[in-house]
Amino acid sequence: MSRRGFALVPVLALVVATAGCVDTNQAEARGGVLIENCGTSIRVEHPPARAVAADQETTEILLALGLRDRIAGTALQIGPVAPEFRADYERLRLLNPKNLTAEQLRAANPDFVASAVTSDFSRDGVGTRQELAELGVASYASAVDCPQFLPDTTPFDRLLVDYDNYGKIFGVADRAAELTRRQRKVIADAQSASAARRTQPRVVYLYSVYNDGLPYVAGNSGMPQDMSRILRAPNAFEDLGGDWAEVGWEEIAARNPSVIVLADLPDRGLRGDKAAQKIEILREHPVISQLTAVRENRFITVPGLELDPTVGSVNALREIKDGLQRLG
After folding, report:
1. N or C: which end of the chain has fewer CB within 10 A?
2. Residue 31 has what pLDDT?
3. Over the Cα atoms of the chain, what is R_g?
4. Cα atoms in the Cβ-side hemisphere of radius 13 Å centred on 24
5. pLDDT tens-digit profile of 156-191?
6. CB atoms within 10 A of CB 297
7. Is 30 strand, coil or helix?
8. Cβ neighbours of residue 84 under 8 Å, at least 6 residues apart?
9. pLDDT on residue 328
């Protein structure tokens, strides 16, 4: 990758860790903070002033921490922005409504870049973490996306690690602690409500139906699986590896869910993205339409973005909790 386009600001330095296993402790480094992130050591000499968030998930987390004025750009907006962030979001520079490119990142003259997924940091994405480090730009990938470095943790656990890390990186640890406190309360309330429920409904999380009409459902490693654990509502596809995967309609019929959680994705423009379109497809299918969950309208709709790891994931958890209570 060419160095041209970056101003080399000595705000952050990054050293790629070569060890196969790292812990999650953050230590005060000489002259700043040292954080271990997905196998990479990040030394923050000064809080970033020109951060780029590579996706909507990361952007909303930074906005929740009150960092609007330190965001130099955002990308990959996949759904409606949460009302509490809308005014701030509209003031940000949208570098690309889809996936951010290395050239667009360079043009933003960043001192820090963060993403919800490790795959962004590749030659086909914004550049490898080593390449960015050589340009004086530190990078951060969501801890949710690299569970191998945080064994025995859940997706929600790792999301809270992100808040803590961002708090240290940007020098807003108190805000991060408050955000964590509020979200832990939502999780605890959901656990209490589920413990009082007599039934354990079997749930399918239907993300979309856009690829040749096949359903895209939650597997056993993403936020929906963790929501099912918290809510004592088993994920019907908990034996399916990965966060999300394409399955056949006959597989959904065979598992006969008692509740279907629908991801609403109104901004992508593909049939099967909007929740209402999903319901139409379910009712039109000769086999799926006969499932009790479909015949009795046992649907719970949540914003699709909130089924991915973001600051709004607790809102989806709360909506599903309330929906399960309503449906009985």
Report:
1. C
2. 57
3. 20
4. 20
5. 999 999 999 999 999 999 999 999 999 999 999 999
6. 10
7. coil
8. none
9. 87
Cα 22 from Cα 321, distance rounded (Å):
35
3-state secondary structure of 245: strand
Rounded to 5°, the CA angle 131-168-111 comes to 35
| Distance separating alpha carbons of residues 306 and 263, to the nearest angstrom | 9
Q: CB of 53 within 8 A of CB of 59?
A: yes
User: For domain 196-327, which CATH number applies: 3.40.50.1980, 3.90.79.10, 2.60.40.10, 3.30.1330.80?
Assistant: 3.40.50.1980
Phi, psi of 111 (to 5 degrees): -115, 0
Contact 93, 74 (CB under 8 A): yes
Mark the ranges of the chain whose per-residue pLDDT is less than 70.
1-31, 211
Are the folds of 12-153 and 196-327 the same? yes
| CATH code of the region 12-153 | 3.40.50.1980
Residue with the two structure tokens 């605890």: 188
Question: CA 172, CA 47: separation in Å to the nearest integer?
Answer: 9
Distance CA 161, CA 142 (A): 9
pLDDT in tens, 122-132: 999 999 999 99
| Residue (of 117, 120, 304) closest to 209 by Cα position | 304
Asked if residues 27 and 61 have their Cβ atoms less than 8 Å apart, the reply is no
The conformation of residue 235, written as its DSSP 8-state character, comes to: B
Alpha-carbon distances, residue 51 vs 144, 204, 245, 322 (angstroms): 20, 37, 32, 36
Residue 261 CB: number of other CB atoms within 10 A? 28
